[in-house]
Amino acid sequence: MKKLLTLTTLLASAALASAATTVTLEGVHNCCKGCTNGIVKAAEGLKDVEVTAEGKTVTITAKSKANAKKAVEAIMAAGYFGTGAEEGSSSAAKADKTLKEATVTGAHLCCQKCVNAMSEAVKSVPGVTEAEIVSKQSTFTVKGEFSEQALVAAMNKAGFHGSVK
After folding, report:
1. Among 84, 98, 140, 157, whose Cα sits 20 to 30 Å from the Cα of 148?
2. DSSP for 151-165, written as a single string
3. How many angstroms separate the Cα of 159 from the Cα of each of 23, 45, 84, 86, 118?
4. Alpha-carbon distance 50 to 16, whole Å?
5. CB 127, CB 70: distance < 8 Å
6. Which pLDDT belongs to residue 77?
């Protein structure tokens, strides 16, 4: 009887584990321990969610799709982005605007490697003439005459996320 109860418990545990949702984000900016800690810490307070960050890959395992989505949104709010984030994010596409100046907020810039990667991404946007990006800040200004969507796309391609205002 005891063996049957143990077997039933193991089978039930396996069924629950197989019901877990896994989301993999690829291409996430993760150049140092500060980045890795920031990625993991972003989803730390979420119930039944585990996040691992190895290289440019972030794996989110959650007991439900809703919790996985919350984890993706928390990681994006912390300034990171990876392909696969679109599936878990509720952000809707906005109409493109041509901007002469923009402030980006919520960017992850923990070290000079982050700043260099973000600077390279932002300066690759056609029409950007200036970007004031500083280490350990989460806000920076971009100037020129450029597309808002192109700016966001360049940041996302480099593994970063931020809000453009």
Report:
1. 84
2. HHHHHHHTTB--EE-
3. 16, 23, 11, 13, 9
4. 15
5. no
6. 97
Q: Is 78 helix (H, G, I), strand (E, B) or coil?
A: coil
Contact 57, 28 (CB under 8 A): yes
Structure token digits, residue 36: 């890795």
Contacts of 105 (CB under 8 A, 6+ apart): 138, 139, 162, 163, 165
Note down pLDDT in tens along the chain; length 165 residues: 444 333 333 334 444 455 799 999 999 999 999 999 999 999 999 999 999 999 999 999 999 999 999 999 999 999 999 998 765 454 556 789 999 999 999 999 999 999 999 999 999 999 999 999 999 999 999 999 999 999 999 999 999 999 999
The two beta strands, 98-105 and 139-147, are: antiparallel
Unique residue bearing structure tokens 């599936």: 87
Helix (H) or strand (E) holding 42: helix 33-42
- In this predicted structure, what is the pLDDT of residue 137? 96
